[in-house]
Amino acid sequence: MIPAIKIDQVHKSFGAFEALKGIGLTIEQGEFFALLGPNGAGKSTLINLLAGLLRPTSGKLSVMGHDVVSDYQRARNALGVVPQELVFDPFFNVREMLRFQAGYFGHGRENYAWIDEVIDGLGLTGQATTNMRRLSGGMKRRALIAQALAHKPPVIVLDEPTAGVDVELRQVLWEFIKKLNRAGHTIILTTHYLEEAEALCSRVAMLKQGQVVALDDTRTLLQRYAGKSLRIKLDPLRIPAGLQPLLRSEDGGYCTLALHEVGQLEGVLAQLREAGVKVEDLQLIEADLEDVFMEIVRQ
Amino acid sequence: MIGMWTLFKKEILRFWKVSFQTVAAPVITALLYLLIFSHVLEGRVQVYPGVSYTAFLIPGLVMMSVLQNAFANSSSSLIQAKVMGNIVFLLLTPLSYREFFVAFLAASVIRGLVVGMGVYLVALLFIPLPLAHPLVALAFAISGSAMLGALGIIAGIWADKFDQMAAFQNFIIMPLSFLSGVFYSIHSLPPFWQKVSHLNPFFYMIDGFRYGFFGQGDIDPGISLTVVAMSFFALSWLTLRLLKSGYKLRG
To answer: Do A87 and B7 touch (CB under 8 A)?
Structure first.
């Protein structure tokens, strides 16, 4: 099957600054994929390259098998991008704007039913004839997402879609996006809310300073990098030499040890017993994407 | 084709939705010029034999409105979309740079013609006006508005802020349109300024357009149309090059 997105050895420089340093990434059709990284890692640059808003210094990118430079019309037809900034056309109402947007992609009346479906799915029915200027921030955000979906693209990129969005709207958005994913759309997401990526995405790429520093299934990544953390309160507060390599932090009388698997727990407790240290309290904490993220960013 | 047509339709609706500001206001402005200049100069100045000053003035004002509004349409649409950021929605589409150009240009021509027609019709209420060669007048109105539409796209691409756009308008468009013979015949100027006027493409547009009404002008309308057409092609070539290169639009 043709991959939804294929990024091959992509470099992008702005003057002397190299924003992307040889990115290679393949995203299969139907995936729910997260692109994570600290500010300035190159996530938005990568999205802008896919969307044709920027041109690569070298390397190739394709959407559904269409090169974004040489076959840009087919590539853009296959792609819907939700920009990060809350931008809108102040002259039109929601439905007009969506019909225009689909029209730019060559769609006419036959597409009106889909537009109404998007309006309904995003809870914009009551605002369909409201001018974009008069919408609240949250409603503008929904309209922005609707605009990216107006031409029914198979691949959808959401650049920080939930930044500054309240909990309720976030739920509505994710339910709708999940429905699209179930219907076969490929979803690519950048977010700062790591729990969102963890809950939704099956695969994750982490970018740091213009390079992919981690790329794996969300679950594998969680296991590989952080495993589990053991938080223990000891009396006396003394870690035997054999356990020192596992020590990650000490605070408020608690020590945190990094474990790769639950099986290590028995050995840890045995060593503490032998050293005559009593365990007063114990918590086993599942690692989350934030731990992985912090660990990779620190490296 | 549907994409280009949609963009054209959107550009038309964009100005039509605020027609009070984009059509009615320039018509009022032109009428104020007409009232003031005709009041002051009627009976004192006669440019062509048998043509009153007011009658002489009207085609100039109509054409000036056509040109200024054609420029305003493409330039304001682009600068607004750039400043607001919603230009991204156009850049994400599969529209080619040629389609983009044609849609913006055609909408500018329509806006120019609508405002020009408005000024003409209202002026007719005050004074009867001959129309010796309507097709000549129309040819100049279309080619002139197309040229200014292209210039508006260039300005819209180049300007990053509203004050840069205002500078373009105040230091290029306004002097060129006011020093083009809207209010006078260039034959009334000293020889040096006559020569300078011949370097101004707006002069040929106004003179050729006026020829369409009175059958007489400062210069042969064939020459004028050639100059206007060549200026239009040169600006279109530049606009298309800018759009193709993605200058200030795509990084």
So the answer is: no
Domain of A16, CATH number, reads: 3.40.50.300
Q: Does A54 touch chain B (CB under 8 A)?
A: yes
Q: What are the DSSP E strand ranges found in chain A? A: 5-14, 17-27, 32-36, 58-63, 66-67, 79-82, 155-159, 186-190, 203-208, 211-217, 228-235, 247-251, 254-259, 278-286
Interface of A with B in 120-139 (CB under 8 A): none
Residue A201 near residue A34, CB atoms below 8 Å: yes
C-alpha triplet B76, B77, B78: angle, nearest 5°: 90
- Does one domain contain both A162 and A251? no
Q: Which residues contact A96 (CB under 8 A, 6 or more apart)?
A: B13
Q: What is the pLDDT of residues B64-84, one digit of tens each?
A: 999 999 999 999 999 999 999
Is residue A296, in this structure, part of any structural domain at all? no
Tell me how far the alpha carbon of residue A149 is from its chain's centroid. Answer: 18
Is residue A293 one of the residues assigned to a domain?
A: no
Q: Say if A294 falls within a structural domain.
A: no
Mutate to test the interface with B, among A104, A133, A144, A151 (most CBs of B within 10 A): A104
A249 - beta bridge partners? A256
Q: What is the residue range of A254's domain?
A: 227-288
A24-67 pLDDT tens trace: 999 999 999 999 988 889 999 999 999 999 999 999 999 999 99
Residues A282 and A157 in one domain: no
Q: What order of strands is seen across the sheet that includes strand A278-286?
A: A247-251, A254-259, A228-235, A278-286
A-B Cβ pairs (cutoff 8 Å, strict): 81
Number of domains in chain A: 2
Structure tokens that stand for A215 in this block: 């790329």
Q: For residues A270 and B249, what is the distance between their CA atoms, to the nearest angstrom?
A: 65
